[in-house]
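Bit of a strange request maybe. I'm writing a small parser for structure token strings and I need a real example to test against, not something I typed by hand. Could someone generate the tokens for this chain?
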Amino acid sequence: MPSLMPPPVQEDAALLSLRRQVREFLAEQVTSGGFTPTVDSWLSGWDLEFTRALARRGWLGMTVPVEYGGHGRTFLERFVVTEELLAAGAPVAAHWIADRQVAPNLLRFGSEDLKRTYLPRIVAGEAFFAIGMSEPDSGSDLASVRTRAERDDGGWRVRGTKLWTSGAHVADAFIVLVRTSPPGEDRHGGLSQLLVRLDSPGLTVRPVISANGTHHFNEVHLDGVFVADDHVVGEIGAGWQQVTSELSFERSGPERFLSTYQLAKSLVNSLDPAEAGRITGRLAGLHQMSLSVAAALQRGERADVPAALVKVLGTTLEGDIADIADLDMPTGAADDVAGLTRRAVQQRPGFTLRGGTNEILRGVIARGLGMR
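Reply from user aminoacidic:
Good idea to test on real output. This should exercise your parser:
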């Protein structure tokens, strides 16, 4: 049976020192009232001041080369910083999409103009992005997208609707997966990626309000939006290969198992020791799995299958923590624990849906094992 995960990684002294620096910064922020730790902060914690504080410390665009305004650091260094931010429940939503996947996508597939236009601004915490993949009738089946782009003088006219575009109401742009030609025998053919400004004429952002009254999701309607040729990302028709590469960054990170970490930390001393041990063990295993994927990305290896495994196991754990807290919360629990539990339970349905449903990703894993 083929191995699904890259080899394990041991953090060296430099990485451990970086962890300590980030923890000290975060402790100072909490003490000074810079933010209140919460769950799911990477999706809904939009805080420009905090994002720019990270940028000033060189903790945005860490893997972006210096020639594009970045810091030329490793994926392992970036992993350490992002894991500490997530574990602390810090408000990182403003830069999350841009830093996590737009910057690597532009570095790999973007033109020189796109790199020089957007990468320095991402690194500085001045350019914010959403994701334009899912649609009302396609969900995780990205090959069935209906948003189409038709050739026009000097560019493309885009028509269609994207859904679950977190942060589109406050972001500057999103990279949109579109169909530029009909599919042939290969249903993944004919797809392309375009970088679309969210203030473009013909583009409308409609809020999608969650059941708990929060707003981070949106529906984005594109009615003949013009996108110039210089905002094509990669090659026309190569969108499927590009987007599957991008999903390795989206699915493998520590946000896939740390969304409810603040709640788990608050509960662990009041749980049955066996239950607390199971949660701790699963978190430790996922930490090592996600770290090994970061190392694989550093080596330039394809990581879509191990990323899918991290996402399935991690989001299952996040949901389990919410359920355990909801069912086993001790009587008279502190208000902050009760608040974290409510928020985790409310957000729980989205854990296994966003980034590709776990049902779809089990199929990706099965193919990786040669079972399909």
